[in-house]
Amino acid sequence: MLGNFTYCNPTRLHFGEQALEQLAGELKHYGGRVLLAYGGGSIKKNGLYDKVTAILKACGKEVFEVPGVMPNPTVEKLYEGCRVARENNVDLILAVGGGSVCDYAKAVSVSAWCQEDPWDKYFLRMEDVSNPIIPVGCVLTMVGTGSEMNGGAVITHPAQKRKIGHVFGSNVMPRFSILDPTLTYTVPMEQMVAGIYDAFNHICEQYFSGEDDNTTDYIAEGLMRSLVASSRIALRQPENYEARSNIMWAATWALNTLLAMGKSTDWEVHMIGQSIGAYTNATHGMTLSAVSLAYYRYIMADGLAKFGRFAVNVWGIDPAGKSAEALAEAGLAAMERWMEELGVARNIRQLGVTEDMLEGIADGAFLMTGGYRTLTRNDVLNILKASM
Ligand code: NZQ
Ligand code: ZN
């Protein structure tokens, strides 16, 4: 049975080719001082930086920049963005990039006027925001995280070996996001497949929980099927608009709060993946793919009916003549074959994990209670060993 919920997602999306033309209209709603945040240079190479700055200039904005937002943005980088935002009293933070830049913009948004250390307050103590928030807008260039339409911000503290996400409320979600699938054509293949697997796993995290018959799970199955079908086309034809636009749209819905409505959710793969990221700085989607199969096989017996349903409804496996266990395993085997096609990481050694890191990674992985099994630290260690 669906639990009770209130659903509101305030992010206005502009989707499609030439969606960037909508940026000027959005900028009218904000004051004249804009903080432009972007990554390590891809937007300069592909010409997007010039287009965005031309629009900002035409709208009469004064622009302050934080370039060099790295994948898995760090707490030091967060402090830098807070200084620039505060010193220039900016009215809007415009993120132009992937999930890292969008997450970063939200982290700066809540931290610039925070009286305490934002790492301690938001990421260690998980407290709510109690200071003014700077509005955020996004121009998305890389698909996967859903950051363009959610309140998530994941920050890494390299010295403390912790990578932690805070899911902020709807007041922190981007006010608008521009989603033009053609802006993702220049994403390297390795990042494209990591993003696709990230989005797929967001759906898994919300699907593998609960035993009831609810609409949210049917939506999840449809999104997973769309991602699998479109990814197979995008692998062969990276500039296939239909495939890239389907992937972009599915990834946004995979993590914009909809799939969590009225049901419990798991997120253990992400907790383990984030801890691996804190130790290795590996690409987020790859940290998930590298532990997923070991994790799902570890917990399969606790959610057998749902794993069987996954096999039939997502992978089209014929249940006739199969035991519940065999059907569930056939679904995971089909997922494994698809992961091979994508070429995503399937062990953590290839991400740079060594034996001496395993205890620390297990310490850094939060133990979630919403999935089919609440792990112990020892379970996490077993899964990590099985993922080597
Ligand atoms: O930095 P640049 O030069 O822009 O290059 C980036 C980066 O190297 C490149 N890229 C992005 N768009 C491109 C492009 N290269 C060429 N052409 C383009 N159009 O791709 C690389 C990866 O970018 P990044 O933003 O790091 O990737 P992603 O979107 O996967 O974001 C990962 C971050 O998001 C967090 C992850 O933990 C990680 O820190 N997540 C955020 C979530 C959320 N807000 O809800 C949920 C996720 O589970 C995830 O944890
Ligand atoms: Zn993710």
TrEMBL record:
Residue ranges of domain Alcohol dehydrogenase iron-type/glycerol dehydrogenase GldA in the record: 10-181
PROSITE patterns attached to this UniProt entry: ADH_IRON_1
A molecular-function term among this protein's GO annotations: alcohol dehydrogenase (NADP+) activity
Boundaries of every Fe-containing alcohol dehydrogenase-like C-terminal domain copy: 193-388
Keyword Oxidoreductase: yes
Keywords linked to the UniProt accession: Oxidoreductase
GO cellular component terms given for this protein: cytosol
CDD domains in the record: BDH (cd08187)
Keyword Signal: no
Protein name, per record: Iron-containing alcohol dehydrogenase
